Amino acid sequence: MKFIRKTGKYAFLFVMALIVGTVAAGCGKSSTSGEEDGSKDGGDGKASGELNLFIWSEYMPDKILKQFEEETGIKVNYNVYSSNEEMLAKISAGAAGYDLSVASDYMVEIMKKQNLLEEVDKENITRLDNLDPEFLNPDYDPGNEYSIPYMWGNVVIAINEDKVDKEVTSFEDLWDLEFKNSLVVLDDQRILIGIGNKLQGESMNSTDTKVIQKSKDLLMDLLPNIKAYDSDSPKTMLVNGEAKAGIVWGAEAYLAEKENPSIKTVLPDEGTNIWIDNFVIPTGAPNKKNAEAFIDFILKPEVSAEIIEDFPYANPNLAAHELIDDDIMTHPAVYSNEEFLEKSEVFKDIEDAILEYDRVWSEIKQ
């Protein structure tokens, strides 16, 4: 699958741990429900009610939520998770009340199969034309019946050049003794085991038990070098010097460099994971229309561009590109070159093989 960024004359390609409980504190039951949600007039021409948003941490600026509340009269309750698997576990365990969440490509496919998603009413999404056609009608959700693209991006290596003597060009280099107790890595089984797969010349989506076991062995060898697992804000340890290097989200590498110029991005020789995150509406959402109103609000070019200022991931909203800083649009941590993207992979639903990934991950982290 190719991802294309168009900027003027340039174009760049581009398990579940069971959590039992109800909606976390702050995600209260809405005052509207069913077909009435999001449509009730608050007396000033605005909608009323609530939106219970369940999303990755550091992924939606507070100022954007306040803008939406002021524009629509809809109160936003905001809760976060650290991984697709955490989100899936919470929703599939019966947590009620979430109206809108974000799921990566392969997770959309999984949630569809488990009947955990509502179809999106496109009549309530008026700004779909702002999205780059490259991100519409994906294999994991033909016709975007259940998902609307929000962000996309990659996983890169970030190094502190002031602290690292070794030339780093690949994931394999991070196994060097120079990085003993000095790496921050994403707390994500698909990504880390996927990297192990790639080091064998295999797919990040491999379902071969022998490949997965070998990846476990490789990651066990890496353990002495791992100082911390952090999917929420891995840039923190890079910026403050606690970590010499890391396996991090591209946007985190970009932000780390802005705070500490000695931090540099390395696009690993093996390629990496390219992910697409999507808005999804959990089955039984009490405020479905409010969720769709929020999606439509985010698709405004000026709103989408403002989000990227705080969280500079790659943006599928083509109409917003001209409003985004050129430094973001041309930085390799955010928009990588075509050669790198061609070597990279999008995660897919690996079905029953996920049980083997779960087992291996638990053994690595025990």
Automatic annotation (TrEMBL):
PROSITE patterns: PROKAR_LIPOPROTEIN. GO terms for cellular component: periplasmic space. Its main location: periplasm. GO terms for molecular function: polyamine binding. Residues 1-25 form the signal peptide. Keywords: Periplasm, Signal, Transport. SUPFAM superfamilies: Periplasmic binding protein-like II. It is found in: Periplasm. GO terms for biological process: polyamine transport. It holds the Pfam family SBP_bac_8. Spermidine binds at residues 58, 106. InterPro entries: SBP (IPR006059), Sperm_putr-bd (IPR001188). CDD domains: PBP2_PotD_PotF_like (cd13590). This is Spermidine/putrescine ABC transporter substrate-binding protein. It comes from Siminovitchia fortis.
